[in-house]
Design goal:
2 domains; alpha/beta; PhnD; D-Maltodextrin-Binding Protein, domain 2; signal; Phosphate/phosphite/phosphonate ABC transporter substrate-binding protein
Length: 327
């Protein structure tokens, strides 16, 4: 399905304040000279990360990756955390960031709106897609069977198969509950679970009490701490907080999974030369194939490997967003 290019509300404001900088970035590429010659490579690059976990911790966790890219490319690479998913897209559109680690919807938007190149997608445990999960601290209400344990985490309603869809017959019970959810740009934290609830007959504006959270770990913790009865996140975001809350897998039970969502990945700004884009793509893919690189990427986003992208796979995300009026 081909969708028209569009400008999101407030895009100019987002572009002006798109990133919460961990360090200043500079060195935009020189303008292309007359005659169509290729612009010079920039003297520095900014890598935009979206807040799937604590923002300050994410920049520190990503430091080995940016250090590797700096050495491999011979160009300083600085990691920054965007204030939200959409801000990362707008930062790429404004050339405030040239490399984006983005969720699937934002990969599609960056390509559609700003001609960014979607070059890599992630593999997690050999999978190139993942479900969003419904999780609860009240399994007696939502579980049709006895929760089962897998790798220290509890699941019910067939969600232990780790592949969606599963358990969706139970989600109509979410009516009247406090629900932790991310912003509307998040495929796993909003788009797919909200769409599933609507297809189950719920009015998600009136039938649930929405508890907004900024990141997937915050959604898990909202359920863990009892601030929400149900939460949405990517599978399995409980692993992000298990170090600080070792019993999270017992107190927060996954009871349903949405249909599969294409994995997140890497987009590169159209301002970069094809040669530099190729070098960045190769460096990142090679890094993910090393033991050290795989561990760093796992620590950042639970990524086990980066592989060449299939941009067409992102159309399903665009269609889901269209159904919710997010385009």
């Amino acid at each position: 399905m081909t969708m028209s290019k569009h400008v999101l509300p407030g895009a100019a404001l987002l572009a002006a304040a798109a990133l919460t900088l961990a360090a200043c970035s500079s060195g935009d590429a020189e303008a292309s000279p007359a005659g169509g010659e290729t612009a010079a490579d920039p003297t520095s690059l900014t890598l935009a990360l979206v807040p799937s976990q604590d923002q300050n911790g994410l920049v520190d966790t990503a430091a080995p990756l940016t250090d590797f890219l700096t050495e491999e490319l011979g160009i300083e690479v600085t990691g920054v955390v965007s204030k939200d998913y959409q801000a990362a897209v707008e930062a790429m559109g404004a050339d405030q960031a040239q490399i984006g680690f983005l969720p699937s919807l934002q990969l599609w938007q960056a390509a559609d709106m700003y001609d960014a190149s979607v070059v890599l997608q992630t593999e997690r445990n050999g999978n190139i897609s993942y479900p969003a999960q419904f999780m609860t601290n009240n399994p007696d209400k939502y579980c049709e069977d006895e929760p089962v344990e897998r790798d220290g985490m509890l699941f019910c309603n067939g969600a232990d198969a780790m592949q969606g869809p599963a358990g969706l017959d139970s989600i109509e019970k979410v009516a009247g509950a406090k629900v932790a959810l991310l912003g509307p740009a998040s495929p796993a934290g909003y788009i797919y679970p909200v769409l599933a609830l609507q297809e189950a007959g719920l009015d998600t504006d009136a039938d649930i009490e929405q508890i907004p959270v900024a990141a997937n770990d915050a959604s898990v913790l909202a359920v863990y701490n009892g601030d929400a009865e149900v939460g949405f996140s990517f599978w399995d975001a409980r692993s992000i907080v298990v170090k600080d809350t070792p019993d999270v897998g017992q107190k927060v039970v996954v009871f349903a999974l949405t249909e599969e969502i294409p994995n997140d990945g890497v987009a590169l700004s159209s301002s970069l030369s094809q040669d530099l884009q190729d070098r960045i793509s190769t460096a990142l893919e090679d890094y993910s194939n090393t033991e050290e690189g795989s561990q760093v990427l796992t620590d950042i986003y639970s990524i086990s490997k980066l592989a060449p992208a299939d941009p067409a796979s992102l159309d399903v995300v665009a269609r889901a967003a269209e159904k919710l009026g997010l385009q």
